[in-house]
Amino acid sequence: MSATASRLPTVDGHRIDERRIDEYVAGLSRRLTGPRRAKVDLLAEVRDGLVDAAEAYADAGLPPSEAVARALADFGDHRQLAADYQAELAAAQGRRTALLVAIVMPVLMLVSRLLWTDSLSAASGPPPVSWHLVVAYTLDVLQVTAVIMALLTLLGYGWGSRYLPAQRVPAPLLLTRLMGAGVLCFVAVQVVTGIATYAWGVRTPAAAGWAPMLACAVVVALSLLGVGRSGLRCLRASYSLRASGPGLAARLG
Question: DSSP characters for 151-198?
Answer without folding.
Answer: HHHHHHTTGGGGGS--SSS-HHHHHHHHHHHHHHHHHHHHHHHHHHHH
